[in-house]
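User: Can you predict the 3D structure for this chain?
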Amino acid sequence: MRQTSPSRSSIAAILALLLPLVLLVGCGGDEAIREDDRSAEELYSEAKDALNARMYEEAIGLYRGLTIRYPFGRHAEQALLDMAYAQYKARKPEAAISSLDRFLRTYPTHPNVDYAWYLKGLVNYDQTMGFLREMFPGTAADRDQQAAQQSFRDFQELIRRFPDSRYVADARQRMVFLRNIMAEYEVTVARYYQRRGAHVAALNRCRYVIENYPGAPATVDALQIMARAYDRMEMTELAADTRRVLELNYPDRIQEEERKSLLDRLWPFD
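Assistant: Here is the predicted structure, written as structure tokens:
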């Protein structure tokens, strides 16, 4: 027996019946929040207690409830910032970044806006650490490299806007580490190209390191890769020139860098 497909009008009627139910379910959570009779002070205190107890999901829900019920109250500003921190600790980086961007747009003159920039840098920094763990065995992802670049820009913005902030010293150290990671990433890709005989591509990556990350430990590796690439391309004069640059500029660092572990090279602080 041949089955007939439903008509467009019947489909539209079904959707019209379902839509109010979907909206009701979606709005149910917010409606319950609005009916909560706790004051802003009570919600904020409970959220803070949950945050201090590392009950991050509960804290997020309480902070969210506070910002919905009292969007213009005196606690709303700090609640949004605290919620971003709870989301960061709960390993919800996208939600944390969204909350921080909203905070920075809505409260640009808040006394803790420097902390918001610092926390935004930390969120991306933690994603970069995931990239670093991937890079140790020799694999690297462009997505995670972008997190390193964004973290660097966030810390850079903190320093530009608030040079006297108490978070600047830590941000500067993290920026050095991030710069070294980004340089090391480019060298990792250059090695990948060189193993496959793509010497021009390897050279381009190494030049990028030398031009954009001067002083990074990876510049020694970049010059060594360049010298080998010139050898294999039978450009003997350029290979010799590159090795002379190594000997003149990094006579001590070549052996020193070989002795250090990768993590020591990337994080040159005690």
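Residues 8-35 form the longest helix (28 residues). The two ends are 79 Å apart (CA to CA).
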